[in-house]
């Protein structure tokens, strides 16, 4: 009976979002819409009553989906990916929206205005977004003071990147910038993500180079923290590049990977929109298979040694399940929620429960990497 009510609730929310709210939101500039939705989220997160109401609309819980990973309890495997809550303003409301965890950031050593506007586009035919934010964020100092002493209801990942500025292009300066932000968060949040794959910043992605990555991770190793550390990588890396990164990671305190960040490849056949009217990296359905293939490669190469967070083009429970069977223990998303609405989180969790039961699994962990 409860399941049926949740199904009806989700269907009503889905129809309302797609036919009423989305047409209005999509009339406005994507960045302005994003900022407006963030303000709504901040408001809803400020009051116990609005949080409770939000939970009533969006929550879903099932013990088959709960996991303890690296000492962290995840109430469900669906998280919000980095980039939606760059300044960690939504940590109070996201548990009520049904997320099992959240990655805040990317956060950099210094405050950063990002690239010039416009810097966000909807690629409607491709079911994707083009992102050229260039790591806009308030910087590690402001964001730590916002989060210090907070009691989080879901695990929080702090995604650290290098400040987007000519001053951090030199390798040593870039490493110092990462280390500055990293040091600020050693005891805030539950896990780290080191983002070495921002497609839109000064100096490109230098830390995909094994030697530079080794230097960066050596400095990170010196910092005392109990938090697990993930590396977020580009979906455009070749097999050899991924293997190079895995070889380096063997020698450092790396617990897992986030696969993947945005793709830069304009020749991707899944791009159905005109490529001349946007800049930056592309999310959503355009990179779905790229990220799943990368999850599979890392899982198989390392025989499940690392925890993988799958990310890219998740619009349904089937999409999430594909990544889990390829080797992901957790998944995260942004684009699917923008195209299909926030009830999608609960739909994915509910759908996962049915898919696991259909395939004879008693718990999500049994399905990881079984492809
Ligand atoms: C608007 C936007 C901003 C993003 N900013 C960041 C960022 O600051 N740091 C990061 O690691 N990834 C960032 N990403 C990439 C996402 O975290 C994610 O890897 C990518 O969007 C694929 O997931 P999706 O298809 O579910 O959106 C951003 C994505 C979007 C759409």
Structural description of this entry:
The protein is 41% helix and 15% strand. The protein has 371 residues and is an alpha/beta fold. It has a single domain, classed as TIM Barrel. The model has no long low-confidence stretch (mean pLDDT 95). The site of flavin mononucleotide (FMN) has 26 residues, from strand 4, strand 6 and helix 11. The site of flavin mononucleotide has 26 residues, from strand 4, strand 6 and helix 11. Keywords: Flavoprotein, FMN, Membrane, Oxidoreductase, Pyrimidine biosynthesis. Catalyzes the conversion of dihydroorotate to orotate with quinone as electron acceptor.
Number of beta-strand segments: 13
* CATH top level label: Alpha Beta
The CATH superfamily is known as Aldolase class I
How many alpha or pi helices? Answer: 13
Average residue pLDDT: 95
Domain Dihydroorotate dehydrogenase catalytic: 64-353
GO cellular component, one term: plasma membrane
Organism: Candidatus Nomurabacteria bacterium RIFCSPLOWO2_01_FULL_39_17
Family: Belongs to the dihydroorotate dehydrogenase family. Type 2 subfamily.
């Amino acid at each position: 009976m409860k399941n049926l009510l949740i199904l009806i609730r989700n269907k009503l929310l889905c129809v309302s979002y797609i036919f009423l709210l989305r047409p209005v939101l999509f009339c406005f500039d994507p960045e302005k819409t994003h900022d407006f939705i963030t303000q709504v989220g901040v408001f809803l997160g400020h009051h116990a009553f609005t949080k409770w109401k939000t939970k009533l609309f969006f929550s879903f819980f099932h013990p088959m989906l709960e996991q303890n990973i690296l000492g962290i309890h995840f109430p469900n495997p669906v998280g919000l990916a980095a980039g939606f809550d760059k300044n960690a303003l939504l940590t109070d409301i996201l548990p009520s929206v049904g997320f099992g965890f959240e990655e805040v950031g990317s956060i950099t050593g210094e405050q950063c205005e990002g690239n010039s506007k416009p810097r966000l586009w909807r690629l409607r035919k491709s079911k994707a977004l083009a992102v050229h934010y260039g790591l806009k964020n308030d910087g590690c100092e402001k964001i730590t003071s916002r989060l210090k002493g907070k009691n989080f209801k879901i695990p929080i990942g702090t995604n650290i990147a290098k400040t987007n500025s000519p001053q951090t292009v030199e390798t040593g300066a870039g490493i110092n910038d990462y280390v500055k932000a990293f040091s600020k968060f050693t005891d805030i949040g539950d896990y780290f993500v080191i983002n070495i794959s921002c497609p839109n910043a000064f100096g490109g992605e230098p830390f995909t180079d094994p030697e530079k990555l080794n230097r960066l991770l050596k400095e990170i190793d010196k910092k005392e923290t109990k938090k697990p550390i993930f590396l977020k990588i580009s979906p455009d890396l070749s097999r050899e590049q991924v293997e190079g990164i895995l070889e380096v990671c063997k020698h450092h305190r790396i617990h897992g990977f986030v696969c993947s960040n945005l793709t830069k490849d304009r020749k991707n056949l899944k791009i159905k929109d005109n490529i001349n009217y946007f800049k930056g990296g592309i999310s959503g359905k355009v990179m779905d298979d790229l990220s799943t293939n990368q999850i599979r490669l890392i899982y198989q190469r390392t025989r499940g040694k690392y925890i993988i967070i799958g990310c890219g083009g998740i619009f349904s429970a089937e999409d999430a399940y594909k990544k889990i069977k390829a080797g992901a223990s957790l998944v995260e998303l942004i684009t699917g929620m923008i195209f299909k609405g926030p009830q999608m989180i609960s739909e994915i969790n509910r759908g996962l429960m049915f898919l696991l039961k259909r395939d004879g699994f008693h718990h999500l962990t049994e399905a990881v990497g079984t492809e």
